[in-house]
Amino acid sequence: MTPPRSPGPGPANRPAPQRPWHVRLGAALPLRYVLRRLAGTAGLLAVLSAAVFALLRVAPGDPARTLLGTRSATPQALAAVRADHHLDDPVAEQYGRWLADALHGRLGTSIRTGQDVTAVLGDRLALSAQLVLLGFAVAVALGLPLGVLAGLRARRPADRAVQSLAVVTLSTPVFAGGLVLIYVFSLMLGWLPAYGPGSGGGGDRLLHLVLPAATLGLSVTAVLVKLTRAAVVRELAREHVTFALARGIPTRRVLIRYVLRGTVVPVSTGIGLVLAYLLAGTVMVEQVFALPGLGQLLVGSVTFKDVPVVQAEALLIAALVCLANLTTDLVHPLADPRLRTAAATAPADRDKGQA
């Protein structure tokens, strides 16, 4: 009796061909889902831009006098300002003209300095972006590992210690935390500079941003710790994780392939919220450490009633926050296959129900 032959390299036994990256990306992010998210973000930006444009209208006094600043408010000067800014046109036309200029990067002229607002923001944007990115790195580097540790050691001394530290950092005002870091690391130890952006190269700038970034990052680390801990505890209680551990699968493999992978969606949502908060939280940090960034510019512009700069900066921050939220929404289907199915089938199921 001849032994059975092994199956040959027929079509059924050949490995499936690898699909191109754009095909796999399209399957993970359906076009309809992406378009709906883009449309929602565009609608939100339109509403926020209308609110930002209304800042000039809700400001006390005549808009022409506000835009005139400290210059002499003669009838001729007021008439020139009204003509330059089309203040006598209907409000809808003014908003459309202002929005079109903003989309083309024409944000007006600063009342305080007389410079182009785009140039004023450009000079400050680099420093604030560096501060936000470093603070974000501090928050992620501390919040995620501590949250995982607290989740794995739930209701144990390590968990209680991590949560106590999180409560302390969350309840400490940003300016108080900054002053404590300045006192310890600048005045007592003399390791780091206390204020200013530095005047040297990249290394000097990085040295000056260590304390501000630590202050900014610690203010939101507790949020990531809480979200990560809750996600880890929830995933450890799921049936497939319990079953995998009961089968004798190594604990490290279960943690990486099942527990940590299941926490990606809630943790990424928290990361998006933290990034949005950091964009708005630079105001106090830049004031404490005397950093000439967007936050300090905003405080000075509000004090001086420099409406064009306030409008431009508010619109920029709103756009960055909306972009962070949009990125988070698009990352979710890539991280969780269940959301891919929901993103692809939800519109079809809704249309079927309406029919």
From TrEMBL:
What this protein is called in its record is Peptide/nickel transport system permease protein
Q: Where in the cell is it found?
A: Cell membrane
User: Keywords in UniProt for this one?
Assistant: Cell membrane, Membrane, Transmembrane, Transmembrane helix, Transport
Record has Acyltransferase as a keyword? no
**Principal subcellular localisation of the protein:** membrane
Pfam families from the UniProt entry: BPD_transp_1, BPD_transp_1_N
The family line of this record is: Belongs to the binding-protein-dependent transport system permease family.
Question: Ranges for the ABC transmembrane type-1 domain?
Answer: 125-328
**What organism, scientifically named, is this protein from?**
Actinacidiphila paucisporea
Membrane association type:
Multi-pass membrane protein
**Which GO cellular component terms are attached?**
plasma membrane
Q: Any keyword Transmembrane?
A: yes
A single Gene Ontology molecular function, please? Answer: dipeptide transmembrane transporter activity
Where are the bilayer-spanning segments? 38-59, 131-152, 164-186, 206-225, 258-280
